[in-house]
Amino acid sequence: MLLTMLVLVLLIFLTVWGTLLLVRYTAQSMLFSLKANEERMVIAIPLAGSVVEAEYIIRTALNMTRDKNCAIEIVLVNCGVDEETAEVCAKMASDYSNIVVLDADEFADYMRAKAHCRITTD
Asked: How does pLDDT run across 55-96, given as a tens digit for each residue?
């Protein structure tokens, strides 16, 4: 009886987990789908103040880019973060080659140099 209940709980857990993974994958592909001619994408994440979940935000962006078939750069834009958040950003940038940390005033210049777009300011 106990073994049967444990197996049933395990099957329910695996079913729910598999369903959640399927929903997550479907949502990511619908929201983050790429056209065949897109070779490079830039994800800019502005951070300001004390961002407690900075590492989670960065890892989520990394996870979104994991299965894509193009070069994706993640730019962490420092809009005045505290020391702890700056350390987290610097560590993530040193651990992953596609993460760049820039100050807010450097971001426009970086986009002009790296991206294939025109930036206009009013």
From this structure: 899 998 888 877 665 678 889 999 888 999 999 999 999 998
Both tokens of residue 107? 């971001």
The beta strands (E) that lie in the chain are given as: 40-49, 71-81, 99-103
Q: 3-state class of 82 per DSSP?
A: coil
For residue 44, count CB atoms less than 10 angstroms from its CB and return exposed for 0-12, middle for 13-18, buried for 19 or more.
middle
Q: Residue 62: helix, strand or coil by DSSP?
A: helix
Which amino acid would we find at residue 58?
A: I
In the block, residue with structure tokens 């502005």 = 46
Lookup: tokens for 6: 């444990």
Q: What are phi and psi of 91, to 5 degrees?
A: -65, -45
